Amino acid sequence: MTKNSATQKNRAALLCRLLRRFYDKDWVSGTGGGICAATGPKTVLMAPTGVHKEEVRPSDLFVVDRMTGGVIRPPRNRSLAVSECNPIFCLIMTQRKVGSVMHSHALSAVLAADLSEDRDHFIIEGLEMLKGVRGVSNQAKHAVPVIRNTPRERELVDQIRRALEAPVFSESFCILVRNHGAYIWGEDLWEAKRHAEIYHFLFEAVVARSRRGRNGWGQI
Known about the structure:
Elements: H1 3-24, E1 34-38, E2 43-46, E3 62-65, E4 71-73, H2 86-96, E5 100-104, H3 107-114, E6 121-124, E7 142-147, H4 157-165, E8 174-177, E9 181-186, H5 189-214
Parallel strand pairs: 7-8
Antiparallel strand pairs: 1-2, 1-5, 2-3, 3-4, 5-9, 6-7, 8-9
Helix pairs in contact: 2-4, 3-5
């Protein structure tokens, strides 16, 4: 086994472990959500679509061209289809020069997006856990972009490209999709995992604080 194939095998096993972890947290339940990870400058491992993510095995993963999204190597099970997130994953990895992206269907992400009301973002501030996002301090007013949902995943690409290019969102490692979920990324699988955990904590915190304010427990 070559060094490159061994690295890809280890990355595939880790990717599947993270999918199981995210399933346990209710972030990829009901076959929703997904994940990908670069295996080199041109190739990406990507989970299949429409399957129970907690059951995904390394042999079920696709190898995809990072620039075009074209399938380089399908899994052994030819009935599987590559993730609906394929063009979005590839866009984020290319635009932000990162190595891993996860897609969450968590309830907290949906409710956090509601806080933006009719704006294209909302601000997270006053929380120590902001320091878990690379380059962000606990004193920051962290702007998270929010885009509208579409009937199909691939139709989100133009909105996501605009959010990635907006200077105001340059420190964000997350894009929220109204009534849908979130895309969260990192330099590699481990940073994507950390950012996923941090952002979901922040979503839960801002939603809890907004409820406290509505119920007269104090103002945010």
